Every structure is written in C-alpha cells, then in structure tokens.
Amino acid sequence: MASVPSALAAGSGSDRLPVVPARAVALGLRIVLAGIALAGLYGGGWLSVAPNRLLPGEALPATAAFGLWTHAAAAALLAYLALAAREDSPEPARSLQFALLAGLLVALAVLTGLAAGRLLAGQPPSARCMVGSGFWTAAGATALLLLYEGRALRPARIAWIAAGAVAALALARRAGAFEALSIMVEYRARADLFHAALLRHLALSGAALALALLVSVPLGWAAFRRPRLRGAVEAVLNGVQVVPAVALFGLLVSLLSLALAAWPSLRALGLAAIGPTPAVVAVAAYLMLPLTRAIAMGLRAVDPALIEAARGMGMGERRIAFEVRLPLGLPVFVAGLRVAAVQAVGLTTLGGLVGAGGLGAVVFEGMAQFASDLIILGSAPIIALALLADLCLRTIELRLARPLS
Amino acid sequence: MREIRSGLAFAAVALALAALADPSVASGLAAALGAQPKPAVPAERLLDLAARHAALALASVAVATFIGVTLGIAATRSAGVALRPLVDTLAAALQAVPPVVVVALAFPALGFGAAPTVLALVFYCVMPVLRGTVAAIEAAPADVKEAARAMGFTRWQLIREVEVPLALPLVSQAVRIALVLAVATAAVGALAGAATLGTPIITGLQNQNELHILQGAAATAALAFLSEAVWLLGVGLLAREPVEV
Q1: What pLDDT digit, counting tens, does each position of A267-295 carry?
Q2: B27, B43 contact by CB (below 8 A)
Q3: ipTM
C-alpha cells in the first residue's frame, strides 16, 4: 500500500458521481459500534456467579450487577456520539471524545470488579464470579471506537490519556477493586507459576531471536554479496514458512528423539527432544526469513549515487558496507526485527506443546481444563507482549527513518 | 514459465513429505535409526484427516475471501475512506495475535470441535485478502477509471468490468497467502478438538509416540506444499502470461 503514489489514491477518492458523503459513513460507523456497545450493556449477561471454577454460572445483566450505573455508562456513550456528530470537531473536542471512551472503559472495569465483590459476599470461597459476553461485547466495541478516534489524535495526546487510564486502573487494583473477579482469583492462585511462565516466554522468544540473528546476519550478507545465492536462500526459507508451525514443532521433537536414540552422546551437549531445544529451534527457523530478507534489502536500499560517491572517495567495499550501507539501511533492519520479534512472541506459545513452558503452557492447561479464566490469563499477556514489541520497534523504526525522508 | 516450474518443485517436496508420512516408510525410518517399534497411524486414517483438514481450510478461505473482497471494495469507495483508518489499525493489531491464541480464546465460547478453528481461520484470513484487495484496487491506473467514467460506465459497471478484473492478479496472490495460512493454522485446531492432520501430532505428543508426531507433521507439511503447488500450477496453466507480482 505504501508503494501507491498518493496522487493515485487521491484520484480514486475524488469520485464525481453522486455518492454518500464520507462524513455520513464515519458517523454511521460510530453509531453502529456504539449500538453494539449498548447492546452488550443492556442485552448480554454481564457477570455470572458459579459455585466453582469449572461449572457454568448464572448470568446476570449489567442492570442487575450495578444498577443505575448502567444508565450512566449508556449516557456517556450517547454523549460521545453527540460530540462526534458535530460538523467539524476541533482537536480539543476530539481529545475529549477519546478521553470519554477511555474513561468509560476504565469505569466499566472498576464497576464490574466492585459488583463482583458484592455478588460474592457471603458465598463460599469456591464460588467464582466471571465476566460474561455482555462485558466482552461492550468493552470490545468501545475499544474499537477508541482505535477509530485515535487515528486523528497526536500520539503524545494518546499517550497521556492512555497513561491516565492505566494509572487509574492500577490505583483501582491497589484498592482491591478487581480482587473478586474470577480471573484475579485464578491469578492469585498461581501467581508464582504465572510469573515464571512469563519470564520463560520472554527467555524463549529472546533465545530464538538471538539464534535466528546468529544465522541470518551472515546469510543476509551472503545473499547480498552473491545475487545467485539469494534465490536459493529465499527458496529454502520460503519453504520453511510453508511448513505449519505445529508440524515443525512436532517434526523437531520426533527427529530429535530419533537422533538422540541413534547417538546418545548428543545428550551430553544438553540437547533433549522435549523442552526448550525444539521450541527455540523451531521458532528461530520461522524468524530467519524476515530477518535475512531485511538484512539483504537494507544493504541494497542505499541510493546507488551515494555508493558511487563513496567509491569516488576511495572507500573499499568493506568500508562502504560498514560506513554507508549499515547506517543507512538501519530502518529496514529494524523493520525486519520488528516483524521477527512479534512472530517470536506468538510462535513461542506453541512451545507449551513440546514441554518448553512459557505462557503457551498456561493457555494449553486452561484448554485441557476447559477453564476460560486460565486461557485468558495465558493469552492476554501474549497479545500484550506482541503489541508492545510491535509498538516499541515501530517507534524506533519511524524515528530512524525520519532524517532520510 | 516461473509459476509452473516452482509449482512442480513444490509438488515434488509435497510428494516426498507424503511418502515420509506413509506408515511403512515412517516406521522403517524409525527402525533404521534404532527407535523402539511403535504403532503407526494407518494410511486411510491419514487420508481421511487430510480431507477434513483441506475441507476446513478451503471453507474458511472461501468465507474469508468473500468478506475480505467485499470489505475491500467498500473501503476503496470514496465514501468508504472513513473506514480505512479503522481497517488499517485493526489489520496491524490483528497481525500481532497468533492464531493459536485465537483458537484458545474462541474455545470456551464455541466448545469442542471444528467451530473455534473455523472462526480463527476466517478471522485470520480476512486481513490478507482485505489488504490485497485494497492495494490492488488502489494500484489500478487512475486514467483507466477516468476513461471508463467518461465512457458512461455506471459505478457498478466500473467495479465489475474495470476495477475487479484489473485487481484480480493481486487479489489471487492474497488468496494464496490466505490459503497457505489456513492450511497451516488448521493444524492448530486439533488442540480444540477439530479433526485435522494436527490430531496425530497432538496425540503423539501426549502419548510420547514420535512416530505419530512424525507422520502427522510430514502429512501436514505435505498438504501445505501441495496447496501451494496446486495454486501455482493452476495460475501457470490458466494465465497465458505470468502474473506480475
């Protein structure tokens, strides 16, 4: 999409035929999403109380869980729509819309946590209070609206509002507002295991990324120097991408165990068919394509005139590579690193299947027990880590690319 | 022709992997490496799982293609520009969510069976198709559209007779990516109880039967290479001239 000249994009946008104005579509989108949020607020089961963590509970609507506050939340949504419907909303108004939605999300979370505490009062300790489909619908639609409104705001403004929301949530957690929710109960029950899994996940992803870099840097360099080799390297690495991840993890386990049966002395090197070895190797195999490609592309990305100038100054190929190509190709390298880091966090999840531990093990344990809270407890940090890696490296990438353009 | 040549290469790899999945070949390999003999998955069972796996992937890609192309056409209308930022942000965010997490999160809501996998596959394959469609329609030369308008084409005619035919090569590339993704992700579905080629891998991991893992993994990879080969050969044979990438 980036390669499309903006003139063309503008050309396709200026349709001369009578059409629905874009403003109406934008308003329609907001009304639809706000409508979905309202439907979740009034229609779905908000909280359910179950006798224990595995049995399904009795679902309560939001009006039963926190009474009049439901209407206050609905009023906030309507106020947002009224603000958004204005013809030309200036920056402060747009910030206000964004802040209103962020505040609504925080308020819904806190109200839900407090309501869970009230519902569980006087119940036996095995009782659990879970959030239901109504909450997820309303929160999801509100989050989409936040994403939509965020497009027109300056990043600094978004960061301030987001920091405020996170601080409010942290404060509410400090005050014990969420302690009664089943997911927090699940977290408390295995906080140590959870933290160990989180660290394990980071270590496995990091090790895979390091291993992939170790192979990809010389490979990318070779592919850059010898264009003939490039085709072969691309073909092999593309072939790896076609192999489904579950299959590659499984294949490594069976091949490693066969190899260890044939040559038991390999065990002395610390290799094992089950555990971190197959997970790190399999994840690294997938990361090699984006990394190698980015390295070869970054080295080639430099303006040929600059290379000519460097040659004219009497620089050798090696010096050109280190002093011209390397610094100028940096944004492309970081872009490849970003893709690889996001994939590493996601793929490491499958490590749980081959006994490597990590957050995937938490997710799969939850699936085995049909315990949705445990699944969410494992999944949410995976998504958060992936998004965080994407955000951080994207920021670096944009900052590096700026002086070039 | 490049497509046919790479298609044949992919088909050869698929054939080799399928042979590796064969019970007698896999058992022979394990025995040659000195592993203890273990029961293998019969060939009929593998073929049955492969058929279910392919059906699951194809059905999901069909649904995802329909949704993705429709949304892509809508997002490139002049009134649809309002949808673009949401689509772009959402696409970037969704790329960060691994498919196995989608399957896991859909599992409690949709239960044991194929449903969570289909949801995850559709969810995951819509984005590449949607992005491909938007990029393809935007890449069409503006003067061609201008000429069609000047000739009195209606908006519907413009879509059907100009924009869609011009976008077809890029969209079919996107559908290929979606198909490979779907074949790969369907294996994960075995975790949520979908009968796919991932099933022998998962049961093999649970029962420590490396033979099952090897057979399931080789068969899944074979199917993925086969789908790539079929697509490439189909494109190579259908299109007289190679599709520009």
Answers
A1: 777 777 788 889 999 999 999 999 998 99
A2: no
A3: 0.79
Tens digit of pLDDT for each residue in A349-388?
999 988 888 999 999 998 888 888 889 999 999 999 998 8
Which segment of A8-12, A136-140, A374-378, B128-132 scores lowest on mean pLDDT?
Answer: A8-12
Kindly state whether B151 is in contact with chain A, defined as any CB-CB distance less than 8 angstroms: no
| Closest residue to A13, CB basis, from B34, B78, B183 | B78
| Winning range, highest mean pLDDT, from A307-311, A319-323, B238-242 | A307-311
Contact (CB<8Å) A367/B155: no
C-alpha span between A221 and B73 (Å, rounded): 41
CB atoms B30 and A258 under 8 Å = yes
Contact (CB, 8 A) for A299 and A329: yes
Phi/psi at A3 (nearest 5 deg)?
-80, -10
Expressed in angstroms, the distance from the first to the final Cα of chain B is 14
B47-66 pLDDT, tens digit per residue, is 999 999 999 999 999 999 99
Inter-chain touch B97–A383, beta carbons under 8 Å:
yes
A59 φ, ψ (degrees, to nearest 5): -80, 135
Could you tell me if residue A128 is left (phi over 0), alpha (psi between -120 and 50 degrees) or otherwise beta? beta
Please give the model's pTM, rounded to 2 decimal places.
0.82
- The DSSP 8-state label assigned to residue A391 in this structure reads H
Distance CA B121, CA B103 (A): 9
Is it the case that residue B134 has pLDDT exceeding 60? yes
Q: Where are the alpha helices (DSSP H) in A263-371?
A: 276-300, 304-312, 317-320, 326-328, 330-348, 359-369
Strands A58-61 and A45-50: antiparallel
Which positions in chain A touch B98 (Cβ < 8 Å)?
Answer: 345-347, 349, 382, 386
Copy the structure tokens of residue A109: 């979370």
